[in-house]
Design brief:
The chain has about 110 residues and is mainly alpha-helical. The chain has a single domain, classed as Winged helix-like DNA-binding domain superfamily/Winged helix DNA-binding domain (Arc Repressor Mutant, subunit A, Orthogonal Bundle). Helix content is about 40%, strand content about 5%. Helix 1 packs across helix 2 and helix 2 packs across helix 3. The longest helix is centred in the N-terminal third of the chain and has 12 residues.
């Protein structure tokens, strides 16, 4: 699959993450059609052409850790955007995944 169409599939999934929820790279990869694309998801989000409409800040790693290389202002910016939506972090700086992970299933 060419990069453009895989990135587009990833962006379509990321657009579905609800306000106040997060998803993991692996979760986005699986929902986009290939559970092995977790790293591709990271590349796609780093190249996000429309951050106002593709909420890449809602994607964290499987532990709930925000990206240190968040492309649109760094880790602190990602944390601030998530906190503004009511997402809470624990003492280790991780999102409480039990409470805030988006639960969309892969069919």
């Amino acid at each position: 699959m060419e990069q453009g169409s895989s990135f587009d599939r990833i962006y379509e999934v990321v657009k579905q993450i609800p306000y106040g929820r997060v998803a993991t790279y692996g979760q986005i990869a699986a929902l986009a059609g290939n559970p092995r694309w977790a790293r591709v998801v990271g590349y796609a989000l780093h190249a996000n052409p429309d951050p106002d409409h593709i909420p890449c800040f809602r994607v964290v790693n499987r532990e709930g850790r925000p990206s240190k290389a968040f492309a649109f202002g760094g880790e602190n910016r990602q944390v601030a955007l998530l906190e503004a939506e009511g997402v809470e972090f624990n003492e280790q700086g991780l999102v409480d995944m039990e409470r805030f992970q988006w639960r969309k299933r892969v069919f």
